[in-house]
Amino acid sequence: MAEAIQKKLQSEVEKYQMIQKDLSKSMSARQKLEAQLTENNIVKEELDLLDSQNIVYKLIGPVLVKQDPDEAKATVAKRLEYINGEIQRHENLLKELERKSDQHREVLTSLQQEYQRAQGLAVGKV
Amino acid sequence: MAGRAVESDLAPDVGRLREEHKKVVKGCEGQIEHWRKVEKDYDSLQERLKTLPDQLSYDIMVPFGPLAFMPGKLVHTNEVTVLLGDNWFAKCSAKQADNIVEHRKKHVKRTLDDLHKVVKNFEDRASFTDDLDRVSGSKGDYVDIREEVLNDEALTKGKRRVAHKPHSKPKMDYVVALEEAEEDEEEEEEEDKEEKVRVTEGEDRDGGKGVVTEEDLWAQLDALEAQEEQLDERDRMCDLTDTNGEDTSSSSEEEKEREGTGQTNDSPKEDHATSDIHGSQLNGVLHTHPEEEEGKEEEEGEEDPNALPTIYFSHTVEPKKVRINTGKNTMLKFSERKEQKEQAKNKKKKNGKANGHSRHDQHHKITTPADIYRLFVDVVNGELIPRKSILKSRSRENSVCSDTSESSAADFEERRSALGRTLSHDDATHSDTSDCVTEEDSPPGIPLHSGSRFEAFSGTVVEKDPLPSSIPHLTIAPPALPTILERKSEELCTEAPQEPPKRVSKFKAARLQQK
């Protein structure tokens, strides 16, 4: 009895740890996205500070590629859009993962109690 | 103890919380440091950008690899390429670069402000946790609250009550059936019981709250009277026990009485933890004999606790005394054959155990009705029979009694209602006592009660099992039962299982009589 519960408990703990890993992974990804968002926001604002006679380059690999300022602005705007979408996606993912981890935590606590009870019974029997 | 334990539990948690706060604050301070440096860099950059276009060209030492410099000239002083971020570059004038730097500095400043806010927030939290730790550590207020919580845990009483109710409800049906047959006898007993109830109420109140009301005073007076009576009764009981060998013809009456006595006996036990202990001890003694009687007795004790929760207790307890005095004779007489046999067995078993218990009982005498009961038993111990008879009566009653006892309780209530008219005091006291009992249970010595009651519950569960087994036998072989019972009783003389026959005797006796 106690052993079966212990096995179950172990598998549950492993699942829970997996979820925790995923959670932390998506959390760090989200943080990265957040940083990119702020950076791109700054780029967008600074591009607005420039006028049409300024030349804009994009660093692609080792070379600076000349870009049209308007095109650059559009690209940055698209980039911002994409980042926002990504952040939204990660937000949902995080929520889902947190819900799952909560569920697992509940299961774990109940299992733990069961296990302790079983252990206590076993001890009592002994 | 509880408070200390909580504190000890709290201390590490608080310490850890504080540690986490400090960690966050430290991290924020590191970031602030970083952003300050960035800001300073931007300041110097801005300074340079402002002065750069002042001249057309500058003579500078150009870094040539990591090790060498070479002289050179800086031209296009008003033309800079700015990294906007995300690998975007823009060629712009120094003036525009200055604007961009200004913009960047704004952002840096915003970040710094945010970090400062976070630091302040967490510093406040850390100080709050410090205060909490200090307050909880130094002052006892929090500790007191925690102790209350612990009490609540012990107070499961409420749950017990709930549990009791369910038990009592099912029993009521039986009670109704039994009541009709018992009513006549019970009515007579009721008066005595009411008196006893007053006594018990007084006792309960005294033990529990010490609230003095007219009812309480009356109850106390009654209790004192009851004690005197009990002492007298004890003397009588010894005599009575000797005379116990009366007819079995009164079996039905005996059963009823037994039920009543069983209830009374049980109620006192429930009221006091000590009484419970006695019951458990008695049960344990009985257990040594593997017969149904033990189970019945246990069941009764447990069942009674279930029913006992409030009202029944007080009523039943006092009646016991009266009944015991007046009724014991009859009880003992009725049940004499079985009881005597059982008693002889029980006495053998109980005497050893009961004697040890009796000491405790004597100590407890004053506190509870149950104690009185025990005292009786103890006193009887010299003669032994009265106690045993009482216990036996319980056990016998138990067989029918689990149902009948409750039914009797219902009867008691009915009686009360009828008697209440004449005895307004009793009703008031009963209601009061019921409340008092509940209240009393919760505050002071209750924990013990609760524990005992719980035990009683478990015991009740056990009891149920034995009953069904006995009942089927009865139903299966109703006609043969009497003979079987007799045989059993005869056998029981040496053994303890007379109770089952008694149960059978009630139903069967009724059937036989009818037939």
Features:
heterodimer, A: 126 residues, mainly alpha, 2 helices, B: mainly alpha, two-stranded antiparallel ribbon, 4 strands, 84% helix, nucleus (chain B), RNA_pol_II_subunit5-mediator (chain B), cell projection (chain B), Prefoldin_subunit_alpha (chain B), protein phosphatase inhibitor activity (chain B)
Indicate the topology.
The complex is a heterodimer of chains A (126) and B (515).
Chain A: H1 2-49, E1 55-60, E2 63-67, H2 69-125
Helix pairs in contact in A: 1-2
Chain B: H1 2-51, E1 58-64, E2 68-74, E3 80-85, E4 88-92, H2 94-138, H3 141-154, H4 157-208, H5 214-243, H6 251-271, H7 273-288, H8 292-334, H9 336-364, H10 369-383, H11 385-422, H12 424-441, H13 446-464, H14 466-476, H15 480-494, H16 499-514
Strand order of the largest sheet of chain A: 1-2
Low-confidence stretches of chain B: 1-7, 150-159, 196-210, 241-311, 316-339, 347-365, 394-416, 418-460, 463-502
Largest sheet of chain A: 2 strands, antiparallel
Please, what is the average pLDDT of chain A? 89
* Content-based structural category of chain B: mainly alpha
Shape of chain B: rod-shaped
Number of beta strands of chain A: 2
Protein architecture, described:
The complex is a heterodimer of chains A (126) and B (515). Chain A is 83% helix and 9% strand. Chain A has 126 residues and is mainly alpha-helical. Chain A has a two-stranded antiparallel ribbon. In chain A, strand 1 (55-60) and strand 2 (63-67) form a beta hairpin. Chain A is rod-shaped. The model of chain A has no long low-confidence stretch (mean pLDDT 89). By secondary structure, chain B is mostly helical. Chain B has three domains: 2-138, Helix Hairpins (Orthogonal Bundle); 157-317, no CATH class; 321-514, no CATH class. Chain B contains 16 helices and four strands. Chain B has helices spanning 2-51, 94-138, 141-154, 157-208, 214-243, 251-271, 273-288, 292-334, 336-364, 369-383, 385-422, 424-441, 446-464, 466-476, 480-494, 499-514; strands at 58-64, 68-74, 80-85, 88-92. The longest helix of chain B has 52 residues, at 157-208. The N terminus of chain B is likely disordered. The chains are: A mainly alpha (126), B mainly alpha (515). At the A-B interface, helix 1, strand 1 and helix 2 of A face strand 3, strand 4 and helix 2 of B. Strand 1 (55-60) of chain A pairs antiparallel with strand 4 of chain B. Chain A: It comes from Coilia grayii. Chain A: Keywords: Chaperone, Coiled coil. Chain A: InterPro entries: PFD_beta-like, Prefoldin.
